[in-house]
């Protein structure tokens, strides 16, 4: 009996320590992500000349800020500490809705940026004539519209249970499971595949590209430099964005994995 009590005490202590560690990690991520994205937003707003790439990066930082503000506090209070003091009829519908909007918008913005990088490296002059500022803004609006569309079922299906004081889903288990798998595919798997393919092609292009023909080595080098001048800036930006996207998907992987297990 004493051994069982001692074991339970140790287990509770370990669990509490784990909660504290996860909370501290969440707070650090919250502060770093919030401050970093605010700096990016400020830097972009201070630039006088607008561009398609800057609009994409602005939208990405904006979705990241909204995602950090709406997702992390709820995850810490409800998932880690199991506190339900923030649960009410409004939060039941709004929390899941806004989380889904920001996560999908962030994922789709990453996809748009990766495709933009791909096109700028392979067809820089032609691509900028196709994707101008107006079409870029329309593409950003489409990203937000798709996020709102996929998040709407949460606002409809989530209701507040007065007797239990918790949120419940009014749709059946089969529908909920199918929709969860659909979101997992749309939010994570498809964007990850598209982004990976785009950046692998970019890396292959950068490191394996050669100017056709043999003969004058100096001439070939001049041709290569002149041909790459247009795409030098996109390549440098690609390195930064690849690091950002890799970090983002690494942080999201445990979240999506845990959701898949719950299904």
TrEMBL record:
Q: Which PANTHER family match?
A: NEUROPEPTIDE Y RECEPTOR (PTHR24235), NEUROPEPTIDE Y RECEPTOR TYPE 1 (PTHR24235:SF24)
What's the short name of a Pfam family annotated to this entry? 7tm_1
Task: Give me the Gene Ontology terms describing cellular component.
Answer: plasma membrane
Q: Where in the cell is it found?
A: Cell membrane
Q: Which UniProt keywords apply?
A: Cell membrane, G-protein coupled receptor, Glycoprotein, Lipoprotein, Membrane, Palmitate, Receptor, Transducer, Transmembrane, Transmembrane helix
Membrane-spanning ranges: 20-44, 56-76, 96-118, 139-160, 180-202
Q: Is the Glycoprotein keyword given for this protein?
A: yes
List the Gene Ontology MF annotations in alphabetical order: G protein-coupled receptor activity
- Domain (G-protein coupled receptors family 1 profile) spans 36-263
| InterPro entries cross-referenced by the UniProt entry | GPCR_Rhodpsn, GPCR_Rhodpsn_7TM
Among PROSITE patterns, the record links this protein to: G_PROTEIN_RECEP_F1_2
Q: What topology in the membrane does the UniProt record assign?
A: Multi-pass membrane protein
Which protein are we looking at? Neuropeptide Y receptor type 1
């Amino acid at each position: 009996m004493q051994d069982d009590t001692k074991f339970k005490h140790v287990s509770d202590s370990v669990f509490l320590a784990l909660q504290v560690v996860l909370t501290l990690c969440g707070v650090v991520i919250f502060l770093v992500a919030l401050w970093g994205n605010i700096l990016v937003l400020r830097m972009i707003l201070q630039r006088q000349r607008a561009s398609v790439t800057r609009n994409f990066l602005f939208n990405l930082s904006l979705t990241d800020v909204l995602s950090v503000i709406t997702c992390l506090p709820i995850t810490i209070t409800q998932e880690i500490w199991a506190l339900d003091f923030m649960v009410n009829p409004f939060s039941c519908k709004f929390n899941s809705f806004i989380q889904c909007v920001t996560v999908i918008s962030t994922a789709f913005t990453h996809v748009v940026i990766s495709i933009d990088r791909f096109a700028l490296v392979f067809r820089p002059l032609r691509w900028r004539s196709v994707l101008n500022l107006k079409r870029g803004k329309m593409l950003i609006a489409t990203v937000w519209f798709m996020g709102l569309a996929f998040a709407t079922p949460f606002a409809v299906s989530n209701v507040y249970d007065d007797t239990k004081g918790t949120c419940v889903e009014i749709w059946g288990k089969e529908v909920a499971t199918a929709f969860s798998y659909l979101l997992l595919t749309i939010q994570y798997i498809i964007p990850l595949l598209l982004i990976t393919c785009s950046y692998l092609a970019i890396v292959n292009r950068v490191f394996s590209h050669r100017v056709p023909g043999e003969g004058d080595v100096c001439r070939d080098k001049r041709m290569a430099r002149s041909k790459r001048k247009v795409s030098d800036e996109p390549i440098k930006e690609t390195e930064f964005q690849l690091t950002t996207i890799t970090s983002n998907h690494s942080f999201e992987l445990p979240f999506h994995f845990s959701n898949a297990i719950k299904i």
